[in-house]
Design brief:
Layout (H helix, E strand, L loop, with lengths): L1 H39 L13 H15 L4 H12 L3 H16 L9 H36 L5 H13 L1
Helix pairs in contact: 2-3, 2-4, 3-4, 4-5, 5-6
Length: about 170
């Protein structure tokens, strides 16, 4: 009889912990969303976000190949910021993402679905199907990471599935 009481108490505690984890994931998702707006506007959420144009997406890619070749990411990011006027944190997120795609490794900060699609196309042109396989693998790992953090990835998943089915 005593074991039943202990088990019931443990189950109640587990349920409470699961509820707490769910709340924390929601708060984390909200935090990341707010933090992205602040990063894009230079820390001031009252400043409108700058649009990341196709030209900026392409510039980030061309510079990210230098990071892939071993150059210091901060040095490269500073050059991109100087050339484009983009927020440094945003540039670094893009450089890490592209580097991850080129290597086939996980990256942890999100980039737009539009940029992901563009990078898939460029990587395929430059590195062929093997390069695209690495990029798709990397985005799949990124999606899994985001989901573990409780962040939705619907638009990225659509692009991922489209290109995964092409392989």
């Amino acid at each position: 009889m005593q074991y039943e009481t202990i088990i019931l108490e443990m189950l109640a505690r587990i349920k409470k912990l699961e509820e707490d984890v769910s709340i924390l994931k929601q708060e984390q998702s909200t935090f990341f969303a707010m933090h992205s707006v602040e990063e894009e506007s230079g820390g001031d959420s009252t400043v409108p976000r700058q649009k990341i144009t196709d030209e900026r997406i392409d510039i980030c890619y061309s510079y990210a190949k230098r990071v892939y070749a071993g150059e210091n990411i901060q040095k490269v990011a500073d050059e991109v910021v100087e050339e484009t006027g983009m927020n440094c944190s945003t540039v670094i997120m893009y450089l890490y993402a592209i580097n991850g795609m080129l290597k086939g490794t996980v990256y942890k900060r999100g980039i737009s679905a539009k940029a992901t699609r563009r990078y898939f196309d460029i990587i395929f042109r430059e590195y062929g199907s093997e390069g695209l396989k690495k990029a798709v693998l990397s985005v799949g790992l990124h999606i899994n990471y985001q989901k573990e953090c409780g962040i939705t990835t619907n638009s990225i998943e659509e692009v991922y599935n489209e290109y995964k089915n092409k392989l």
